[in-house]
Amino acid sequence: SLYVSEYFSQSAQKLSFYSWYGNAKLFHFHVPEDTVLLRWLLQASRGKGPECTSMEITVHFRHGAPPVINPLGTRFPANATIRPSYNISITLSSAVQNTTFVNVTTPAAGDWFIAAHLPEAAGRIEVKGFSTPCPYMFQADMFVLRLTDMPVLEPGVPMPHTVVSPAKPLHVKVFVPKHAAGMRFQLSSCITSEQRACAVRVLLGSITLPQSFQRILTCTGSINCSLALESPPWEKWLQIMVESLGTGNASVKVEMLASFTVCRPGSTSSFLNFISLNQSQAVARPGAAGSSAPAAGEAPHNSSSQRGSCLQSQPVVREDLDVVSVRYRLLNGPSVPVNTRSPTLLLLNLNTGMDSGGSLVVNLLLNKTSVSLTNATVVACVSAASPVLSLNATRNCSTAFSQGYPLSVSTSSAEAMLIVLYPQTDDWFLSLQLLCPKGQGECTTAEAKVTVFSYLTPCFNDCGPYGQCSLLRRHGYLYAGCSCKAGWGGWSCTDDTKAQSVGAQNLATLLLTLSNLMFLPAIAVAVYRYYLVEASVYTYTMFFSTFYHACDQPGVAVMCIMDYDTLQYCDFLGSVVSIWVTILCMARVKKILKYVLFILGTLLIAMSLQLDRRGVWNMMGPCLFALVIMVTAWVHHGAKRKHCYPSSWKRWVFYLLPGITLAFIAISVYAFMETNENYYYTHSIWHVLVACSVAFLLPPRDKHKKPWAWSQKLTCRYQICQNDREELYAVT
Fold first, then answer.
1. How confident is the model at residue 293 (pLDDT cuts 50, 70, 90)?
2. Backbone dihedral region of 707: left (phi > 0), alpha (psi from -120 to 50 degrees) or beta?
3. DSSP β-ladder status, 110-120 and 170-176
4. What are the TM regions of this chain, as residue ranges (predicted)?
5. What is the DSSP letter of 311?
6. Residues 138-160 pLDDT 10s
7. Cβ of 611: how many Cβ atoms within 10 Å?
């Protein structure tokens, strides 16, 4: 046999602490057909700075779709299927780099996904620039060993093969046709080259993670051994590996036979249904009113064909709506007939390669009036790759190499829902059959009507009122995840264990918005001292900070007067410009120079905020530059007057020192104390402290200016005018 090795690599990604699925870094690989060995090379590394500590990286694997993970231990939505992913942990302790290998023999062909993340996020809000986070990098590479000339086992034809040695197993494959109800594999004529009793082990199927349903058959001696499989995967190659269990290097000769039992589907009248679908979607045209095509729900059924078939296939149309958004429409109408003779089968096509990043929702609704038997139950099974063709009370909704998802409806419980999170790329099948209690002879002729609603959505229920559905991308692959807020958690933001109450949400909104009213004293002081430009800036800041925080709330207490991004930009701009004009006002420079600096500084601040809105130097840069100007001006005034400036000790004790203290406390709270849990009151404290410090730091008005005298300023009143003009008379 000729083996070919191939290598696939993807660029490294920087890992993040986990708070929602978007923090997990996804790697997407495609394993080719006839692969007999898959080896993952996982490389993790961290920075060398003192901020880098020991860290544990969790890596999840899954075949066919991104892994469904739950590192936070939150609840999933009701009716959702939860099957834990296969994962390993990589520890970065004293070593800067860690290399780990993961081997998978006879892996399933198709898409494979790896997701890696750090432990749960601490929840602390870090200001960009104040601290340097440690970079943790992760890279996944894939090696595959592929057999180029794998022998093909033809159905119904015995084929002799030889296992060369225990170290070199035999690999063959057989193609499973469509509508295969069962497969029987038989191994016979087993003999070693030393004419001893042989012992071999046969592995049927491929390994899929997190769960593998590979079937194992052990044969000893010359006795024939066989294995029967129900519902093998349709239209796929099935790998078979035979390995010798002998101790020596003797070869083993065996004869293998694979046979299939094919299920004949019943008539579905798909051509008439296709015509009726086109007529229902067509726009009314002149002359079309007289057409007499049968309605979609009145397609004729061949009763003799139904009795002789083992399944009734209902035609389904896949309607693509958007990215990771599909709706399935039944051509015979939303209701399908279900009986006891054979299962009703619906095909849900999810094999485009771009459908595995959402949630598959299947909803069943039983028409109670259509079931004459009170104790009858309609059982259903949703499975991938092949349908379940024998639905009864003892089966657990499993096929040859996969485990399906059971559903049931009855007159007592007429509705059932199933949510498959990240369904694997494949053909999915919905099988329905009517089951009746024993002793009811009329059950053979009974028929139930079940309404089926099935669709693929990026996020179930659009993540609810306390979540946001985000479309994520890794290279060309798109998948969706829910980002929860207001303390809610879970896959679809349905876990209210740590959720904020409505009262707490209202309190948070009131604190963050009303705390901006503390700018009113600063505005009053600025107006009283004739600093009208500064007062205008404080008013601007108070207005946009109030409505930005009213729009920024995660819960139901939200009010947005304009676009969120605009409100955020105006809030950040007003905050930085307020600090800029306050420090320049304290510098007591000439008016013309002060106003020029006001305008230039505001323009530069607006530009820097557009480049990086959350950078710490957007605030620290203007502050430091303004402080340099202020200190220079104060030194100049002090040298000119031959004493310290400001000269009054009362000014230092009662105004400057309290204002500076409040400003430093505000910066400490903003930079080091804010977390996701205490944000609403720590940030409110920041608002109060900053506003109060501005009121203390504003300098007194110029001595030559008098206080506001409104009676002198307002001239709109009656006045008695006296004409003092002297008249000149000419004497002739």
1. very low
2. beta
3. unpaired
4. 507-531, 592-611, 617-636, 652-673, 679-698
5. B
6. 999 999 999 988 899 999 899 88
7. 8
For 42, 86, 97, 104, 664, the CA distances from 91, given in Å and listed in that order, are: 12, 17, 10, 22, 40
Amino acid letter, 572: F
- What sign does the CA torsion over 532, 537, 540, 545 have? negative
Assign domain 3-147 one CATH number from 3.30.1490.20, 2.40.10.10, 2.60.120.1570, 3.40.50.620: 2.60.120.1570
* pLDDT at residue 60 is higher than 90: yes
Q: How far is CA 316 from the centre of its chain?
A: 29
> Each residue of 491-532: pLDDT tens digit?
999 999 988 888 888 998 999 999 999 999 999 999 998 899
**Assessment of whether the complete model's pTM goes beyond 0.85:** no
Arithmetic mean of pLDDT, 693-711: 74
Which residues, at least 6 apart from 335, have a Cβ–Cβ distance to it below 8 Å?
Answer: 297, 367, 449, 450, 451, 452
Cα first-last separation, the chain: 144
Q: Which fold has domain 159-262?
A: Jelly Rolls (2.60.120)
Judged on CB neighbours under 10 Å (0-12, 13-18, 19+), 640 is: exposed
With CA atoms as reference, report the closest residue to 695 among 472, 534, 500. 534
What is the CATH T-level fold of the domain 312-457, as seen in this structure? Answer: Jelly Rolls (2.60.120)
| Tokens at 653, concatenated | 């004790």
- Helices 617-641 and 591-611: crossing angle in degrees, nearest 10, is 160
pLDDT confidence tier of residue 275, bands split at 50, 70 and 90: very low
Q: How far apart are CA 100 and CA 89, in angstroms?
A: 10
Pairing of strands 25-31, 17-18: unpaired
Amino acid type, 12: A
pLDDT of 302 > 70? The answer is no
Instruction: Cite the residue boundaries of each domain of the chain with CATH code 2.60.120.1570.
Output: 3-147
- As given in the structure block, the two tokens for residue 270 are 């798909």
Q: Are 145 and 213 in contact (CB under 8 A)?
A: no
- Neighbouring-strand partners of residue 218: 201
Q: Three-state DSSP class for 344?
A: strand
pLDDT, greater one: 174 or 645: 174
Pairing of strands 170-176, 13-14: unpaired
pLDDT at 732 over 50: no
Indicate the pairing of strand 110-120 with strand 55-63.
Answer: antiparallel
State which H helix or E strand residue 426 sits in. Answer: strand 426-435
- CA–CA gap between residue 25 and residue 60 (Å, rounded): 10
Q: Write down the residue that tokens 């990589």 correspond to.
A: 90
Residue 597 has what pLDDT? 93
d(CA 184, CA 168): 25
CA–CA gap between residue 14 and residue 619 (Å, rounded):
27
- Residue intervals of the chain classified under CATH 2.60.120.680 are 312-457
What are the tens digits of pLDDT across the range 573-627?
A: 999 999 999 999 998 888 899 999 999 999 999 998 988 888 777 778 888 899 9
What pLDDT band is residue 723 in, cutting at 50, 70 and 90?
low
CB-count burial class (<10 Å; 0-12, 13-18, 19+) for 55: middle
Q: How many angstroms separate the CA atoms of 365 and 375, rounded? A: 16
8 A C-beta contact, residue 432 and residue 326:
no
Question: 3-state DSSP call for residue 393?
Answer: coil
Work out the angle at residue 110's Cα, subtended by the Cα atoms of residues 44 and 170, and round it to the nearest 5 degrees: 100
